[in-house]
Design a protein that fits this description.
Layout (H helix, E strand, L loop, with lengths): L8 E5 H4 E5 L10 E7 L8 E5 L10 E5 L7 E4 L3 E3 L3 E6 L5 H15 L10 H6 L1 E5 L8 H24 L12 E5 H4 E5 L11 E7 L8 E5 L13 E4 L5 E4 L4 E2 L6 E5 L5 H15 L11 H6 L1 E5 L8 H22 L7 E7 L2 E7 L1
Parallel strand pairs: 3-7, 12-16
Antiparallel strand pairs: 1-9, 2-8, 3-4, 5-6, 5-8, 10-18, 11-17, 12-13, 14-15, 14-17, 19-20
Helix pairs in contact: 2-4, 6-8
Length: 364
Amino acid sequence: MKQVNTTYWKVFRIDELFDVVKGKRLTKADMVEGKTNYIGATAFNNGITAKIGNSEYIHPAGTITVCYNGSIGQTFYQEEPFWATDDVNVLYPKFMISKYIALFICPIIYKVSLNYAYVDKWTAEKMRSSKIKLPSTQDGSPDWQYMEEYMRKIEQRTKSAISAFVAAKNKPHKIDTTYWKEFELSSIFDIVLSKGDIQAKRMKEGDIPLVSSGKFNNGICAHIADGDGKAEIFDGNVITTDMFGKSYYQSKPFYAVSHGRVNILIPRYKLNQYIAFYLISVLDSSFSSRYSFTGMCSQSQLKQEKILLPATPAGEPDWKYMEMYMRGVEAIAKEKIALLTKKKQEPVQQTAITNYGTVNIYEK
């Protein structure tokens, strides 16, 4: 897989590129109903948590918001005027910004945020002196044209991929849950937490995944060489569920941050990746709308949770059914991907991290 060449990229301080302004808190009691976006400390919906009519502290469109509390580091480009809470920093560009340039920069800023945590927040003061690496021109300036064209190309490839998936008609079918049964999560998993207080920025870089709370990258915030002497390294082939209720399958040995409240679900049965992916879809479906920063998914709560699963006539989870179902899903996905590949071409695959996660693009 061909990676983006950063040989000619240059390091810039954020305050060289942006003025960093802290948002202002607005309590629910003071909110007036309206049409202006209210940007809060969330990882969802471009940061929008409400629509308000208040107008005292409105930031202009064409700026970037970064959470430094709550969903730390979540970075979004704002195309409409908005109010930002005091858990959010607003980045005013000192250059002519566009949506595409912003979408190029946002994931780079988010990457820097992984060095911070709830106990060491990425405040406006710290953000101003933080550094990001960007493509540069021969005179050492940021190469805005390259960034714009790169993201336009990703947008074009993504739209083409979505169109191809829509064209590949696959009629949905309803799963028969007549013989499914509720199981206590604690009856199929031992649920544990990490000890110690590993922080990515204090760890030496290595090959061991460090799992935290987050929507992307399988929950992995860094790769480290070793722990802090207190934290346990967990075996792979387990499931992690973070404080927001987001679950991932961890195939390799890993560490987990304790301040991220990552629950490690150790199976009491023979788990494989197919069964794990089936269970994760059930867990995410059950928890995604129920847990948040103000109502976190704790170890004690997980131990009381029940999930609905296919069951055998004996009343046990039907692991064989789950595995075969996910193998079938994998086969269908591979077939759809094959529809996107032109038989007479051998494209070079590139990977880019965008505001919407990791996107694969193809160059002729």
